[in-house]
Each structure stands twice: as structure tokens, then as C-alpha cells.
């Protein structure tokens, strides 16, 4: 049966569909993504790695898949490779910001995949849980004035989490990986990917110790977002 396509004129734009709306799509729903480039990129922690770039039909920013290790190990029939669905975080991933836990999660995921022999890291253009870098910086200013990460988003007129999981599910399907073990502390990610037709064979906790700056941020994720951090 051909895969259902999300209507081109989805009201919020394909990549900003909040989780609740994605859950309303049938499990076979897909968005149109084109594989536009790929190259071998040896990494410090994973000498065997390839980056595959996907671009949406309606333009926009590229989403990347970093394939670690043996490609056969990734798509082996019945296998469930270690997978990380990582939302872009300029401050944490690139600069090593202490405000969040993204940097250790990103590097930790690649190192674990290399140890495991193979894995796939989806690096999604969903900065600031989907509100973008400029708004995330505004949210940080509000947090410095006393709001927590969730209320800061709301004060800016956004939901707590503006990300969707359809793009990640579509990338995995196009890579021939319908079944995964997911590195995450976020139960919504597991449910969201499952709702989009990906079989999550297991969740692997992906916790890193608080650093003295992000303690309240991590406590808020556990208390208000339901992240499994304790
Ligand atoms: N809006 C907003 N986004 C943030 C903030 N801190 C980090 N982020 C973004 O949050 C995203 C990472 O999401 P997290 O909530 O840390 O974790 P998760 O992806 O839901 O769950 P895990 O898989 O367990 O890491 C990245 O896009 C970051 O840029 C913040 O205070 N406000
Ligand atoms: Zn971050």
C-alpha cells in the first residue's frame, strides 16, 4: 500500500507540528524528504561515520542522519540499532553551554554507538524544542528572571514543546530502519515515534550528571515534562 502523504498545506508547517497533532496522523504517514547529499566523515569518537542530508520538498533547513559504524549492522533484518533523535542545540552542542544537557547527550550518543558497533543519530533542525535560536535566547532571559523552561516558552506564546516526530520517522523509514532502540529520557519521543509507525523495541536511558548550572533545568524536565531522569 502506498504511504499516505501529509497534505502540503499542513496548517503549522510540517516540521513544527506539535506532538499532539503528529499523534493524530496515521502510523504510515510520511512527509516528503529528499536525500540530497552524503559523505564519509570520520569522527573523533567514531572513525567509521557517514552523514546523510535530507531536505524537505518545501525547502527549509536540512535534517541530518549520522550513521555510525557498520552500515550492514544498521539495516540488518530484524535488528534494532541504537538510535538517538537529537534536536539541534547551537548553545549546548557547539559551544558547550552549561544551561542544558545537549552537548554531553550528543557526544555520549556517538560514543555509545561506536562502542555498540553501529547506530544512527538523527540531528534535527528543531532548535529550542522547535521555537528557534532567537526565541530560545529570549526564553533564557525570562529564565534568568525566574521563569522555568516551560513557563518561559508559554510567556513567549509557544507551547512547552513545538517539535514533531514525523520527520524523524520518515528519515528512519527512508534509511531502511523501521525498528530501533531509542536513546532518550523522554517518553513522549517513544510514543511519538511509535505513533508515526516506528517500532521502538527498547528505550535506553541517556542521563548525564547535573553540572551545577543546569540542575534546575533538569529538575523541571523531570517534574513538568515527565522526563525519566531520576
Ligand atoms: N525552548 C527551549 N528550548 C531549550 C531549552 N533548553 C534546551 N532547549 C532545547 O531543547 C532541545 C533538547 O530537548 P530536551 O528537552 O533537552 O530533551 P529531549 O530531546 O526532549 O529528550 P532527550 O531525548 O531525553 O534528550 C534542543 O533543541 C535545545 O535547544 C530552553 O530552556 N528552552
Ligand atoms: Zn541544549
Automatic annotation (TrEMBL):
GO molecular function terms noted in the UniProt entry: GTP cyclohydrolase II activity
Q: Which reaction does this chain catalyze?
A: GTP + 4 H2O = 2,5-diamino-6-hydroxy-4-(5-phosphoribosylamino)-pyrimidine + formate + 2 phosphate + 3 H(+)
Q: Where does GTP bind?
A: 84-88, 105, 127-129, 149, 184, 189
Name the EC number(s): 3.5.4.25
Q: Which residues form the GTP cyclohydrolase II domain?
A: 35-204
Task: Describe the function of this protein.
Answer: Catalyzes the conversion of GTP to 2,5-diamino-6-ribosylamino-4(3H)-pyrimidinone 5'-phosphate (DARP), formate and pyrophosphate.
Q: What is this protein called?
A: GTP cyclohydrolase-2
From the UniProt record, report the name of the gene that encodes this protein: ribA
Amino acid at each position: 500500500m502506498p504511504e499516505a502523504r501529509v497534505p502540503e498545506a499542513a496548517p503549522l508547517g510540517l516540521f513544527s507540528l506539535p506532538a499532539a497533532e503528529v499523534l493524530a496522523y496515521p502510523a504510515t504517514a510520511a512527509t516528503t524528504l529528499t536525500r540530497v547529499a552524503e559523505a564519509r566523515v570520520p569522527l573523533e569518537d567514531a572513525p567509521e561515520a557517514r552523514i546523510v542530508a535530507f531536505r524537505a520538498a518545501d525547502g527549509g533547513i536540512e535534517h541530518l542522519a549520522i550513521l555510525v559504524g557498520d552500515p550492514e549492522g544498521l539495516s540488518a533484518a530484524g535488528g534494532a540499532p541504537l538510535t538517538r533523535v537529537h534536536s539541534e542545540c547551537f548553545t549546548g552542542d557547539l559551544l558547550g553551554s552549561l544551561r542544558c544537557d545537549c552537548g554531553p547527550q550528543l557526544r555520549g550518543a556517538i560514543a555509545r554507538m561506536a562502542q555498540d558497533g553501529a547506530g544512527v543519530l538523527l540531528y534535527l533542525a528543531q532548535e529550542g524544542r522547535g521555537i528557534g535560536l532567537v526565541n530560545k535566547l529570549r526564553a533564557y532571559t525570562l529564565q534568568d528572571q525566574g521563569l522555568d523552561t516551560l513557563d518561559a516558552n508559554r510567556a513567549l506564546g509557544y507551547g512547552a514543546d513545538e517539535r514533531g516526530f514525523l520527520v524523524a520517522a520518515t528519515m528512519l523509514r527512508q534509511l531502511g530502519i523501521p525498528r530501533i532502540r531509542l536513546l532518550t529520557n523522554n517518553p513522549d519521543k517513544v510514543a511519538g515515534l511509535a505513533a508515526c509507525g516506528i517500532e521502538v523495541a527498547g528505550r535506553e536511558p541517556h542521563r548525564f550528571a547535573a553540572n551545577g548550572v543546569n540542575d534546575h533545568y533538569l529538575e523541571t524536565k523531570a517534574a513538568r515534562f515527565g522526563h525519566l531522569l531520576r
